[in-house]
Amino acid sequence: MSDLHRACETGNIEEVRLLVDSGADIEVKNNDGWTPLYVVSRNGHIDIVKLLVDLGPSCMAAPAVMPGADIEAKATIGWTPLLYASRYGCVDIVKLLINLGADIGGPLYIMLPIVDI
């Protein structure tokens, strides 16, 4: 697990900013294929979700790379950040990811029964 994964897991947005500004790869994966966005989506840290997906070309981390975290990245078991957020009851993050264009197809048996999206 990377330092960025750990900062995301604890919800430490200041450390996340520091790591990203220092060049941390926002798409780094752990042994399960989780990017930092998975960690914050599952743990309900919506402020960090917004930070990761809003990273623009001015981000110092990797200016040549497409801006923002990949909301469609799949873990080794095929789940996306949307499915993790849904499975762990993070409704605000589910709404945010859907509004950002996340694919709502997939294993719907793990999705929350969300009524007001």
By secondary-structure content and strand pairing, the structural class works out as mainly alpha
The count of strands amounts to 0
- What can be said about the biggest beta sheet? none
Proportion of strand residues: under 5%
Determine the mean pLDDT: 82
CATH topology: Serine Threonine Protein Phosphatase 5, Tetratricopeptide repeat
The second-level CATH architecture is: Alpha Horseshoe
The helix content, as a percent range, equals 40-55%
Please, how many helices?
6
Shape: globular
User: What separation lies between the terminal Cα atoms?
Assistant: 33 Å
Q: What is the class in the CATH system?
A: Mainly Alpha
The H-and-E topology, N to C, reads as HHHHHH
CATH superfamily heading:
Ankyrin repeat-containing domain
**How many domains, in number, for the residues?**
1
What Rg do the Cα atoms give? 13 Å
Instruction: Show unreliable segments.
Output: 56-66
Task: Explain what this protein looks like in three dimensions.
The protein has helices at 3-10, 13-21, 36-43, 46-54, 81-87, 91-99. The protein is an all-alpha fold. It has a single domain, classed as Serine Threonine Protein Phosphatase 5, Tetratricopeptide repeat. Helix 1 runs parallel beside helix 3, helix 3 (36-43) runs antiparallel to helix 4 (46-54) and helix 5 (81-87) packs antiparallel against helix 6. The model is unreliable at 56-66 (pLDDT under 50).
